[in-house]
């Protein structure tokens, strides 16, 4: 019972620390959660928490890397039309999508793709290029039978002024999620005339449907097979995984795909079985200040919070404020009911407690710039003290090579989240959450569960926070998560990177 009173005391102190940061919105539920965790502390944990609830998930197997008979008959692709240059914007995950789309477009236009360039962003502040993050030769070799890929333009074309020639393509020149027909109509004539087309700031400019089977399969092959992190990232990623699990050998296909041979398939002689293995849950909290400010929601911080977020919007989102002047405005309460508000660390903790994860659960937190800092995180760290980040799992010297490279740091989070026993997300629209959950679907073999709370349904549950009983709360939370884990084939227009269960990416046995 000592743990019980300790947890209750710490949660009760949250109100007293409100002056130091945002207030807690659900203190009563936090106390109920603390009591439940204390009661469960010495009970056997349900293994179902760490498993996918639907056995159908294991019937889907990866097969996007299998070369189709059509490609075999056609033989090695030829460069007939010209060369495609790509300058991708955004962070690691946006750039990953851009690369896969570029491979598909090069195939569509029968062109040669030059290894993509990554634009420097004032937001991400990362000068990393493709070869700093992904293995260039492996990428080229994996796709060589289907797309011509080279590292640089031929010398006779390097001096071409693509802008003067009309071959510089920006977002203004292509529709968002453009169709193949638009590429053939607008881009192919430029390619045939000038031999080079440069897509500047290229991102989400290729739709998912309608798209020919082979192009969809090629996108999957690129995302799930051709993009391998460089050994520097794999090595440090393996340190992260080994330290949180407390054992030093690979266990799953996900380990092998993301870490190569840097984690052995069998335990080392020095391995101490008494120290592991330990399961861990990876949590991607999208509660950075940009996400919080853009949402237009309120999170219990009162007038101080409102002023701070409005100031941030004025500096970083002036177009959003202008657009809001001309559209219907919703109150923060209405936005919350509509499911438009990011989940707070407090709400994430309540979901995990409602599902039954124990007080001692090991949690890897992806990213660490949480709005509100430690005061905002206190509810989560009180209920789940075994919470770690890459910053406290790795020494300063181990982190030093990544310090000024946000995309490479994001790659470490990608690895730790993708190889986790359970992956929990708070915003299904996040690129990291989308790509990691897709990777786990593709390689997880039906044994890599992802927890996806519905923000709208959770808001409805939490609206009863003053009266709802803990058993009722648990039942509603479990039902919400269970429905989000149903095994479904990719729907029309849905991302193939997030939803690979389809004939172009996976085979059903």
UniProtKB/TrEMBL annotation:
<keyword id="KW-0328">Glycosyltransferase</keyword>
<dbReference type="GO" id="GO:0016757">
    <property type="term" value="F:glycosyltransferase activity"/>
</dbReference>
<dbReference type="GO" id="GO:0016020">
    <property type="term" value="C:membrane"/>
</dbReference>
<keyword id="KW-0812">Transmembrane</keyword>
<keyword id="KW-1133">Transmembrane helix</keyword>
<keyword id="KW-0808">Transferase</keyword>
<keyword id="KW-0294">Fucose metabolism</keyword>
<dbReference type="Pfam" id="PF10250">
    <property type="entry name" value="O-FucT"/>
</dbReference>
<keyword id="KW-0119">Carbohydrate metabolism</keyword>
<comment type="pathway">
    <text>Glycan metabolism.</text>
</comment>
<dbReference type="InterPro" id="IPR024709">
    <property type="entry name" value="FucosylTrfase_pln"/>
</dbReference>
<comment type="similarity">
    <text>Belongs to the glycosyltransferase GT106 family.</text>
</comment>
<dbReference type="InterPro" id="IPR019378">
    <property type="entry name" value="GDP-Fuc_O-FucTrfase"/>
</dbReference>
<dbReference type="GO" id="GO:0006004">
    <property type="term" value="P:fucose metabolic process"/>
</dbReference>
<keyword id="KW-0325">Glycoprotein</keyword>
<keyword id="KW-0472">Membrane</keyword>
<dbReference type="InterPro" id="IPR052272">
    <property type="entry name" value="GT106_glycosyltransferase"/>
</dbReference>
<protein>
    <recommendedName>
        <fullName>O-fucosyltransferase family protein</fullName>
    </recommendedName>
</protein>
